Amino acid sequence: MEALAELTRKCDTVGAVFCVDNSADAYKYAMENEIDLFLVDIILDGENAHDISGIVLIDRLRKYKRYEFTPVIFITSLVDEAMNAFHNLHCYDYIEKPFDMDNVGKIISRALQAPLCDDRDSGVFYYRKDGVLYALNIDRMIYLETSFRNVMIYTLDETIEIPYASLKNLMKDLPRKHFVQCSRNTVVNRRFIEYVDKVNLMVKLRNGKVVRIGGRMKKGFFEEL
Which of 4, 111, 155, 160 allows an S-S link to 140, with CB 3.0 to 4.6 Å? Predict the structure, then answer.
């Protein structure tokens, strides 16, 4: 697992890499984050001779629209099971044990370049607060702003406070084509941008809110727009 994680981290387009050794934790990460690629061992319970819990996990995730076509690479010595996964679960590829590290690196890189990996457009943002997982419609999110150690999410009809959160971590879960960071403290939904004042480094949003463009972030902000 650690060897595969290290290979993945070396890929140019990779963001966060989550490592778990059981299907329950894997499912938890999948629900709390927007995963671009799954590398899953078919056998997750080595003490069970008939275990195929990796396949069961992906079959369960495929029922969610946002993971319907997410690339999956199975790691296995069970070629018959891998072929079954190809036909029934639409997996991207499979890696036979023992595997060639160079070849595995190439497979991971290709999978991360698949169109779906850079287009997080599920329409829903998931966040956890007080131990409860919530879903928020992205089309209703206007902008996010840090406030002390919390992040405030301003929507069309309410303001949501997420304690002990950071914009950096939340940005990993937001669709890149909709949200752009304009300062160290503010992220805006570009759908709600009314106009951008490049001279005075200001952004006016459709709800009337005016936010500043950070001097250190202006180049990246304008490039993304």
Answer: 155
